[in-house]
């Protein structure tokens, strides 16, 4: 069961769609990306309305240093 309905999660590091990965479950609050092994946090503050909002986020800046 999904904790966050209608939320599509993407890996913060490589951009892979996490929802499509095997046995994905967002209620755990964290998810290791199958593609790159990055630990993604699945929480309310990591949900962005748009690509633009994501690019303005703290996490994005921390990862991509902008
Ligand atoms: Zn990844």
Description of the molecule:
The chain has helices at residues 51-55, 58-64; strands spanning 30-32, 39-41. The protein is globular. It has a two-stranded antiparallel ribbon. It has one domain. The protein has two helices and two strands. Helices cover 18% and strands 9% of the residues. It starts with 29 loop residues before the first strand and ends with a helix. The longest helix has 7 residues, at 58-64. Bound molecules: zinc ion. Zinc ion binds next to loops.
Keyphrases for this structure?
alpha+beta; 18% helix; binds zinc ion; 66 residues; two-stranded antiparallel ribbon; globular
Number of structurally distinct domains: 1
Q: What pattern of helices and strands is seen along the backbone?
A: EEHH
Largest sheet: 2 strands, antiparallel
Total helices: the number is: 2
Layout of SSEs?
Blueprint: E1 30-32, E2 39-41, H1 51-55, H2 58-64
Antiparallel strand pairs: 1-2
Bound molecules: zinc ion.
Question: Could you write a compact summary of the structure shown?
Answer:
The chain is of the alpha+beta class. The protein has one domain (18-64).
């Amino acid at each position: 069961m999904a904790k966050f309905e209608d939320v599509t999660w993407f890996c913060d590091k490589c951009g892979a769609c996490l929802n499509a990965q095997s046995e994905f479950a967002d209620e755990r609050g964290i998810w290791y990306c199958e593609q790159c092994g990055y630990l993604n946090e699945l929480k309310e503050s990591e949900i962005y309305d748009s690509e633009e909002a994501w690019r303005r986020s703290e996490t994005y800046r921390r990862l991509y240093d902008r």
